[in-house]
């Protein structure tokens, strides 16, 4: 069974100031380097292990053009490696090697991932498919996910993949976990299923977690977890495309409630839709329901999961799979996670390499130095990444940091847990700790910073004191009070702009 793969590449606003601003300046998230490689290259390497039918990279027009240009070398090397391997195997007549899946670049116009899936990809999907983000690194092979999906229940439309945070250094406040409601089905042969999902911010704001009565009637032994994190990996059947793309009314009624109040009327208006069979569903018929696709894909999956309990008649379910605890999985969707992803790759490198010495410097085996990088004498670099064309002065100490391309660090500077943007200049005898420095920023000599983010000031990003006073007066005079807002309106999956 061949799968199509779709990799969603977003702006990466959560990685500000090292990715694009809302004025589209800068580079997309997919090209942010991890251990001097574009983060999307790790995802492409992972896909090559799975033997997928084709790999599709999605994004806005300007992003796709830039990603395609930057990946040209990677694609050429990938093809050259295949040719070398093919000649070697043919010479020995040992076995056949599969040609790498083609990489396609698709320009999308939708503002949300759900809209992109429904409108831009509907005609491209020909069978079961996999949705991936562009920012994850893992040592768990794709065969584990594929095998789990192949063993799914016959009534599963898709399989949502979750993981637990295995990195202690990631700041938990940046994880933004949701409340995941699921059924383990311990006393049956059925696989665990996803039932519902609530935003953590929504629960904190309302001060309670409201579980629907219909859910408890249908699944009385349901569990709730706040430790499961969304990987944005979904293995989907072809049926899901037919279900979400042929709705006459694309939205749920206000409040997210179903239209089951009058069962006779609903049963009379609902139509049975014959769906192209997937791997297990040979003679399955799906009832057409109203699905709102004008939102992020994780919320579309959530709404599909709610179909299993919110209607009077049974509906198909969404399977749930938690990645095994023995493997490593991390998404670089925040600055702390991005830093930890670099360190994870560095630890792997240090386990297979010895310490390296460059003209009197001390560069540990757990560090990576890019091409044309100049490191001064008596400089120590530990658990850090130095990009290409960087210049590090004498008697500097760099620990647990990421220095991007073209940065200059003057003599006797100390960097601990710092991300330095490209073409940044850090003055002599500066000491920076737990800080982020935007690209092309100039840090004055002898600067001491701890826990700071240095960015360029743009006039369109600030308000004058007069404007701030006026806006405050307006709020107070109108008696403004904060009201409950549905999580669909504000939650960001970090992939596409709302």
UniProtKB/TrEMBL annotation:
Quaternary structure, from the entry: Component of the translation initiation factor 2B (eIF2B) complex which is a heterodecamer of two sets of five different subunits: alpha, beta, gamma, delta and epsilon. Subunits alpha, beta and delta comprise a regulatory subcomplex and subunits epsilon and gamma comprise a catalytic subcomplex. Within the complex, the hexameric regulatory complex resides at the center, with the two heterodimeric catalytic subcomplexes bound on opposite sides.
GO terms for MF: guanyl-nucleotide exchange factor activity; translation initiation factor activity
Subcellular location: Cytoplasm, Cytosol
UniProt main location, coarse: cytoplasm
Coiled coil stretches, renumbered: none
Annotated signal sequence range: none
Keywords: Cytoplasm, Initiation factor, Protein biosynthesis
Record-given protein name: Translation initiation factor eIF2B subunit gamma
Domain spans labelled Mannose-1-phosphate guanyltransferase C-terminal: 365-451
Lineage summary: Eukaryota, Fungi, Dikarya, Ascomycota, Saccharomycotina
Protein family membership: Belongs to the eIF-2B gamma/epsilon subunits family.
BP-aspect Gene Ontology terms: cytoplasmic translational initiation
Entry-linked InterPro entries: eIF2B_gamma, GMPPB_C, Nucleotide-diphossugar_trans
PANTHER family associated with the record: TRANSLATION INITIATION FACTOR EIF-2B SUBUNIT GAMMA (PTHR45989:SF1)
CC annotations in GO: cytosol; eukaryotic translation initiation factor 2B complex
Region annotation Disordered: where it falls in the sequence: 249-270, 465-498
Organism listed in the record: Lachancea mirantina
């Amino acid at each position: 069974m061949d799968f199509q793969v779709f990799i969603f590449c977003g702006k990466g606003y959560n990685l500000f100031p090292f990715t694009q601003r809302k004025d589209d300046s800068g580079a997309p998230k997919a090209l942010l380097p991890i251990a001097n490689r574009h983060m999307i290259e790790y995802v492409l390497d992972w896909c090559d292990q799975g033997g997928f039918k084709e790999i599709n990279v999605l994004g806005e027009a300007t992003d796709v053009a830039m990603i395609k240009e930057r990946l040209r070398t990677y694609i050429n090397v990938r093809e050259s490696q295949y040719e070398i391997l093919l000649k070697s195997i043919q010479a020995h007549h040992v076995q056949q090697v599969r040609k790498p899946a083609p990489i396609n670049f698709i320009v999308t116009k939708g503002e949300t991932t759900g809209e992109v899936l429904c409108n831009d990809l509907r005609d491209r999907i020909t069978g079961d498919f996999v949705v991936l983000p562009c920012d994850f690194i893992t040592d768990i092979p794709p065969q584990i996910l594929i095998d789990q999906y192949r063993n799914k229940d016959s009534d599963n439309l898709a399989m949502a993949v979750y993981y637990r945070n295995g990195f202690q250094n990631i700041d938990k406040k940046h994880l933004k976990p949701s409340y995941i409601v699921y059924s383990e089905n311990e006393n049956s042969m059925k696989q665990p299923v996803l039932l519902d999902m609530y935003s953590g911010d929504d629960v904190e704001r309302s001060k309670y977690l409201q579980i629907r009565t219909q859910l408890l009637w249908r699944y009385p032994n349901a569990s709730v977890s706040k430790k499961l994190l969304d990987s944005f990996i979904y293995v989907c059947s072809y049926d899901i495309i037919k279900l979400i793309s042929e709705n006459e009314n694309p939205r749920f009624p206000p409040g997210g409630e179903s239209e089951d109040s009058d069962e006779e009327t609903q049963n009379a208006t609902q139509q049975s839709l014959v769906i192209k069979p997937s791997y297990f569903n040979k003679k399955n018929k799906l009832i057409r329901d109203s699905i709102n696709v004008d939102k992020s894909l994780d919320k579309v999956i959530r709404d599909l999961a709610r179909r299993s309990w919110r209607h009077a008649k049974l509906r198909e379910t969404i399977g749930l799979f938690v990645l095994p605890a023995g493997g490593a999985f991390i998404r670089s969707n925040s600055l702390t996670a991005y830093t930890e992803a670099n360190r994870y790759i560095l630890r792997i490198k240090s386990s297979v390499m010895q310490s390296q010495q460059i003209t009197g410097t001390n560069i540990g085996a757990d560090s990576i130095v890019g091409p044309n990088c100049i490191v001064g004498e008596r400089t120590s670099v530990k658990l850090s990444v130095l990009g290409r064309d960087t210049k590090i002065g004498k008697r500097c100490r760099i620990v647990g940091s990421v220095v991007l391309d073209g940065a200059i660090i003057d003599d006797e500077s100390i960097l601990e847990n710092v991300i330095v943007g490209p073409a940044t200049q850090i003055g002599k005898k500066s000491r920076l700790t737990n800080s982020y420095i935007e690209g092309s920023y100039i840090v004055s000599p002898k600067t001491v910073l701890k826990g700071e983010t240095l960015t360029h000031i743009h006039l369109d990003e600030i308000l004058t004191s007069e404007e701030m006073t006026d806006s405050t007066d307006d709020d107070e005079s109108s008696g403004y009070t904060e009201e409950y807002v549905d999580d669909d309106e504000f939650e960001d999956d970090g992939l596409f702009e709302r």
